[in-house]
Amino acid sequence: MTEMRCVLDAQAKLAECPRWDEQTQTLYFVDIDSFELHAYNTQSGDHSVRRFEEEIGCFSLTNNGGFIAAFRSGVYTFADFNAPLVSYWQADYDQKTTRFNDGRCDPAGRFLAGTMYSPKDAFLGGLYQFEKGQQRLLDQAAWTSNGLAFSPDQKTMYYSDTPNHIVYKFDYDVTTGEATNKRTFIEFPRGNGRPDGAAVDADGNYWSALYQGQRVVKISPEGQILAEYPLPATYPTMVAFGGEDMKTLFVSTCRAAQTDAELEQFPQAGGIFALDVENEGQIEFRFAG
Fold this sequence. Notes:
Pfam families: SGL (PF08450). Its cofactor is Zn(2+). InterPro entries: 6-blade_b-propeller_TolB-like, SGL, SMP-30. This is Sugar lactone lactonase YvrE. GO terms for molecular function: calcium ion binding; gluconolactonase activity. The structure is a single chain. By secondary structure, this protein is an all-beta fold. The protein has one domain: Neuraminidase, CATH 2.120.10.30. The chain has 1 helix and 24 strands. Strand 7 and strand 8 (about 75-80) form a beta hairpin. The longest helix has 6 residues, at about 260-265. It is globular and about 45 Å long.
Protein backbone atom coordinates (compact mmCIF):
# COMPACT_ATOMS: atom_id res chain seq x y z
CA MET A 1 0.00 0.00 0.00
CA THR A 2 1.30 3.44 -0.93
CA GLU A 3 0.94 6.74 0.89
CA MET A 4 -1.84 9.17 0.17
CA ARG A 5 -0.89 11.39 -2.78
CA CYS A 6 -2.46 14.45 -4.37
CA VAL A 7 -3.55 13.63 -7.94
CA LEU A 8 -5.31 16.94 -8.63
CA ASP A 9 -4.49 20.17 -6.79
CA ALA A 10 -7.96 21.55 -7.40
CA GLN A 11 -7.89 24.22 -4.66
CA ALA A 12 -11.61 23.56 -4.23
CA LYS A 13 -13.49 25.37 -1.51
CA LEU A 14 -15.53 22.24 -0.74
CA ALA A 15 -14.77 19.29 -3.00
CA GLU A 16 -17.37 16.54 -2.55
CA CYS A 17 -19.04 13.60 -4.26
CA PRO A 18 -16.09 12.03 -6.11
CA ARG A 19 -17.62 9.62 -8.61
CA TRP A 20 -15.71 7.24 -10.88
CA ASP A 21 -16.77 6.59 -14.47
CA GLU A 22 -15.22 3.22 -15.32
CA GLN A 23 -16.17 3.61 -18.98
CA THR A 24 -14.00 6.68 -19.57
CA GLN A 25 -11.57 6.48 -16.62
CA THR A 26 -12.84 9.86 -15.49
CA LEU A 27 -13.22 11.08 -11.92
CA TYR A 28 -16.07 13.53 -11.47
CA PHE A 29 -16.57 15.63 -8.34
CA VAL A 30 -18.32 18.82 -7.23
CA ASP A 31 -17.13 21.96 -5.48
CA ILE A 32 -20.32 22.76 -3.60
CA ASP A 33 -19.41 26.26 -2.44
CA SER A 34 -18.20 27.25 -5.92
CA PHE A 35 -21.31 25.85 -7.66
CA GLU A 36 -19.10 23.64 -9.84
CA LEU A 37 -18.99 20.18 -11.39
CA HIS A 38 -15.50 18.92 -12.30
CA ALA A 39 -14.38 16.17 -14.68
CA TYR A 40 -10.81 14.88 -14.40
CA ASN A 41 -9.64 12.27 -16.89
CA THR A 42 -6.94 10.29 -15.12
CA GLN A 43 -5.42 9.03 -18.37
CA SER A 44 -5.14 12.25 -20.39
CA GLY A 45 -4.95 14.67 -17.47
CA ASP A 46 -7.74 16.79 -18.96
CA HIS A 47 -9.64 18.76 -16.32
CA SER A 48 -12.98 20.38 -17.22
CA VAL A 49 -15.15 22.57 -14.99
CA ARG A 50 -18.80 23.57 -15.34
CA ARG A 51 -20.22 26.35 -13.17
CA PHE A 52 -23.90 26.54 -12.20
CA GLU A 53 -26.08 29.22 -10.61
CA GLU A 54 -26.42 27.47 -7.26
CA GLU A 55 -24.92 24.74 -5.11
CA ILE A 56 -24.71 21.26 -6.62
CA GLY A 57 -24.58 18.86 -3.68
CA CYS A 58 -24.31 15.47 -5.36
CA PHE A 59 -24.95 13.65 -8.61
CA SER A 60 -24.93 10.29 -10.33
CA LEU A 61 -24.23 9.20 -13.87
CA THR A 62 -27.17 7.87 -15.87
CA ASN A 63 -27.60 4.79 -18.04
CA ASN A 64 -27.90 6.97 -21.14
CA GLY A 65 -24.62 8.81 -20.61
CA GLY A 66 -25.94 11.87 -18.82
CA PHE A 67 -26.26 13.09 -15.24
CA ILE A 68 -28.82 13.47 -12.49
CA ALA A 69 -27.90 16.01 -9.84
CA ALA A 70 -29.32 17.44 -6.63
CA PHE A 71 -29.06 21.22 -6.29
CA ARG A 72 -30.36 23.60 -3.63
CA SER A 73 -33.54 24.19 -5.65
CA GLY A 74 -34.22 20.58 -6.54
CA VAL A 75 -33.17 17.70 -8.76
CA TYR A 76 -32.24 18.10 -12.42
CA THR A 77 -31.00 15.94 -15.27
CA PHE A 78 -28.67 16.92 -18.11
CA ALA A 79 -27.79 14.86 -21.16
CA ASP A 80 -24.05 15.47 -21.03
CA PHE A 81 -21.47 17.53 -19.14
CA ASN A 82 -22.44 20.81 -20.84
CA ALA A 83 -26.10 20.17 -21.67
CA PRO A 84 -28.98 22.34 -20.37
CA LEU A 85 -30.58 21.42 -17.06
CA VAL A 86 -33.98 19.73 -17.17
CA SER A 87 -36.10 19.89 -14.02
CA TYR A 88 -36.89 16.51 -12.47
CA TRP A 89 -38.21 17.62 -9.05
CA GLN A 90 -38.56 21.04 -7.45
CA ALA A 91 -37.67 21.30 -3.76
CA ASP A 92 -40.58 21.39 -1.31
CA TYR A 93 -38.39 22.47 1.62
CA ASP A 94 -37.26 25.95 2.69
CA GLN A 95 -34.35 26.69 0.38
CA LYS A 96 -33.03 29.40 2.71
CA THR A 97 -32.18 26.81 5.37
CA THR A 98 -31.89 23.55 3.43
CA ARG A 99 -29.99 22.19 0.45
CA PHE A 100 -29.03 18.80 -0.94
CA ASN A 101 -25.70 17.42 0.18
CA ASP A 102 -24.82 13.73 -0.31
CA GLY A 103 -26.27 11.04 -2.53
CA ARG A 104 -25.87 8.19 -5.03
CA CYS A 105 -27.89 5.57 -6.88
CA ASP A 106 -29.09 2.32 -5.36
CA PRO A 107 -28.54 -1.06 -7.09
CA ALA A 108 -31.88 -0.74 -8.92
CA GLY A 109 -30.93 2.63 -10.39
CA ARG A 110 -32.99 4.87 -8.11
CA PHE A 111 -31.34 8.18 -7.18
CA LEU A 112 -31.10 8.85 -3.44
CA ALA A 113 -30.05 12.24 -2.10
CA GLY A 114 -29.98 13.69 1.40
CA THR A 115 -30.37 17.26 2.57
CA MET A 116 -28.62 19.31 5.23
CA TYR A 117 -30.43 21.72 7.53
CA SER A 118 -28.07 24.65 8.05
CA PRO A 119 -29.42 26.05 11.37
CA LYS A 120 -28.74 22.66 13.00
CA ASP A 121 -31.31 23.29 15.70
CA ALA A 122 -33.68 20.55 14.52
CA PHE A 123 -33.31 17.19 12.82
CA LEU A 124 -34.77 18.29 9.49
CA GLY A 125 -32.20 16.80 7.11
CA GLY A 126 -34.03 14.28 4.96
CA LEU A 127 -33.13 11.37 2.69
CA TYR A 128 -35.10 11.41 -0.56
CA GLN A 129 -35.49 8.72 -3.19
CA PHE A 130 -36.23 9.47 -6.86
CA GLU A 131 -37.56 7.00 -9.41
CA LYS A 132 -39.62 7.35 -12.60
CA GLY A 133 -40.39 11.00 -11.94
CA GLN A 134 -41.60 10.34 -8.39
CA GLN A 135 -40.01 11.05 -5.00
CA ARG A 136 -40.47 9.74 -1.51
CA LEU A 137 -38.92 10.60 1.83
CA LEU A 138 -37.10 7.63 3.38
CA ASP A 139 -35.84 9.30 6.55
CA GLN A 140 -35.89 12.73 8.20
CA ALA A 141 -33.87 12.71 11.39
CA ALA A 142 -30.48 14.25 10.56
CA TRP A 143 -28.76 17.62 10.70
CA THR A 144 -26.50 16.85 7.74
CA SER A 145 -27.18 13.85 5.50
CA ASN A 146 -24.01 12.02 4.48
CA GLY A 147 -22.28 8.68 4.07
CA LEU A 148 -24.86 7.02 1.83
CA ALA A 149 -23.64 3.62 0.58
CA PHE A 150 -24.84 0.08 -0.08
CA SER A 151 -23.47 -3.33 0.89
CA PRO A 152 -22.36 -5.74 -1.87
CA ASP A 153 -25.29 -8.07 -1.18
CA GLN A 154 -27.59 -5.04 -1.68
CA LYS A 155 -29.41 -5.73 1.59
CA THR A 156 -27.92 -2.95 3.74
CA MET A 157 -28.00 0.82 3.30
CA TYR A 158 -25.60 3.05 5.26
CA TYR A 159 -26.32 6.70 6.03
CA SER A 160 -24.56 9.12 8.38
CA ASP A 161 -25.46 12.28 10.26
CA THR A 162 -22.09 14.07 10.27
CA PRO A 163 -22.54 16.67 13.09
CA ASN A 164 -23.85 13.97 15.41
CA HIS A 165 -20.91 11.61 14.67
CA ILE A 166 -23.19 8.65 13.85
CA VAL A 167 -23.37 6.23 10.93
CA TYR A 168 -26.65 4.33 10.70
CA LYS A 169 -27.52 1.16 8.84
CA PHE A 170 -30.90 0.13 7.45
CA ASP A 171 -32.31 -3.06 6.00
CA TYR A 172 -32.84 -2.23 2.33
CA ASP A 173 -35.23 -3.91 -0.07
CA VAL A 174 -33.81 -3.24 -3.52
CA THR A 175 -37.02 -4.46 -5.17
CA THR A 176 -39.31 -1.97 -3.43
CA GLY A 177 -36.77 0.66 -2.38
CA GLU A 178 -37.93 0.49 1.24
CA ALA A 179 -35.44 1.22 4.04
CA THR A 180 -36.36 -0.21 7.45
CA ASN A 181 -34.89 -1.22 10.82
CA LYS A 182 -32.70 1.84 11.32
CA ARG A 183 -29.99 1.34 13.94
CA THR A 184 -26.53 2.65 14.85
CA PHE A 185 -23.69 1.13 12.85
CA ILE A 186 -20.87 3.10 14.51
CA GLU A 187 -20.63 6.27 16.60
CA PHE A 188 -17.40 8.26 16.75
CA PRO A 189 -16.18 10.11 19.85
CA ARG A 190 -16.36 13.90 19.75
CA GLY A 191 -13.32 15.95 18.90
CA ASN A 192 -11.43 13.64 16.53
CA GLY A 193 -13.30 13.83 13.26
CA ARG A 194 -16.88 13.14 12.20
CA PRO A 195 -18.18 10.79 9.50
CA ASP A 196 -18.68 12.49 6.16
CA GLY A 197 -18.96 10.83 2.73
CA ALA A 198 -18.29 7.12 2.31
CA ALA A 199 -18.08 4.11 0.02
CA VAL A 200 -18.31 0.34 0.50
CA ASP A 201 -15.79 -2.03 -1.08
CA ALA A 202 -16.53 -5.39 -2.70
CA ASP A 203 -15.77 -7.15 0.59
CA GLY A 204 -18.37 -5.13 2.46
CA ASN A 205 -16.06 -2.78 4.35
CA TYR A 206 -17.34 0.77 4.87
CA TRP A 207 -14.75 3.50 4.15
CA SER A 208 -15.55 6.86 5.74
CA ALA A 209 -13.87 10.25 5.38
CA LEU A 210 -13.58 11.79 8.84
CA TYR A 211 -14.19 15.51 8.41
CA GLN A 212 -11.84 17.53 10.65
CA GLY A 213 -10.20 14.20 11.46
CA GLN A 214 -7.46 14.28 8.80
CA ARG A 215 -7.97 10.63 7.91
CA VAL A 216 -10.07 7.95 6.28
CA VAL A 217 -11.19 4.91 8.26
CA LYS A 218 -11.97 1.41 7.03
CA ILE A 219 -14.76 -0.25 9.01
CA SER A 220 -15.79 -3.89 8.90
CA PRO A 221 -19.41 -4.91 8.20
CA GLU A 222 -19.67 -5.58 11.95
CA GLY A 223 -18.74 -1.98 12.79
CA GLN A 224 -15.12 -2.48 13.86
CA ILE A 225 -12.42 -0.04 12.71
CA LEU A 226 -9.91 -2.11 10.75
CA ALA A 227 -7.47 0.59 9.60
CA GLU A 228 -6.94 4.35 9.48
CA TYR A 229 -5.27 6.28 6.66
CA PRO A 230 -4.02 9.84 7.32
CA LEU A 231 -3.88 12.43 4.58
CA PRO A 232 -2.40 15.94 4.28
CA ALA A 233 -5.69 17.79 4.70
CA THR A 234 -7.68 18.40 7.87
CA TYR A 235 -11.08 18.08 6.24
CA PRO A 236 -11.55 15.01 4.01
CA THR A 237 -15.11 14.97 2.73
CA MET A 238 -15.78 11.76 0.78
CA VAL A 239 -14.15 8.71 -0.78
CA ALA A 240 -14.67 6.83 -4.04
CA PHE A 241 -13.11 3.70 -5.52
CA GLY A 242 -11.76 3.88 -9.05
CA GLY A 243 -8.80 3.16 -11.30
CA GLU A 244 -8.50 0.43 -13.91
CA ASP A 245 -8.66 -2.29 -11.25
CA MET A 246 -11.02 -0.40 -8.90
CA LYS A 247 -8.31 -0.46 -6.21
CA THR A 248 -7.58 3.26 -6.08
CA LEU A 249 -9.29 5.14 -3.27
CA PHE A 250 -9.92 8.76 -4.23
CA VAL A 251 -10.51 11.28 -1.44
CA SER A 252 -12.02 14.74 -1.86
CA THR A 253 -11.13 17.48 0.62
CA CYS A 254 -12.25 20.91 1.80
CA ARG A 255 -10.06 24.03 1.64
CA ALA A 256 -12.45 26.73 2.86
CA ALA A 257 -12.56 25.44 6.45
CA GLN A 258 -8.77 25.34 6.85
CA THR A 259 -7.17 27.98 9.07
CA ASP A 260 -4.17 29.92 7.80
CA ALA A 261 -1.92 27.72 9.93
CA GLU A 262 -3.52 24.57 8.53
CA LEU A 263 -3.14 25.84 4.96
CA GLU A 264 0.53 26.47 5.58
CA GLN A 265 0.85 22.89 6.82
CA PHE A 266 -1.45 21.40 4.15
CA PRO A 267 -1.15 23.62 1.03
CA GLN A 268 -2.96 21.08 -1.20
CA ALA A 269 -6.12 21.05 0.91
CA GLY A 270 -9.08 21.27 -1.44
CA GLY A 271 -7.41 18.79 -3.76
CA ILE A 272 -8.20 15.24 -4.74
CA PHE A 273 -6.00 12.63 -3.10
CA ALA A 274 -5.52 8.96 -3.96
CA LEU A 275 -4.39 5.82 -2.18
CA ASP A 276 -3.67 2.39 -3.65
CA VAL A 277 -5.55 -0.17 -1.56
CA GLU A 278 -5.89 -3.95 -1.43
CA ASN A 279 -9.69 -4.03 -1.48
CA GLU A 280 -11.50 -3.70 -4.77
CA GLY A 281 -14.31 -1.18 -4.92
CA GLN A 282 -17.79 -1.58 -6.32
CA ILE A 283 -18.64 -0.04 -9.68
CA GLU A 284 -21.02 2.86 -9.15
CA PHE A 285 -24.68 2.25 -9.97
CA ARG A 286 -26.25 4.52 -12.59
CA PHE A 287 -29.62 6.22 -12.70
CA ALA A 288 -32.21 4.20 -14.59
CA GLY A 289 -34.75 6.96 -15.05
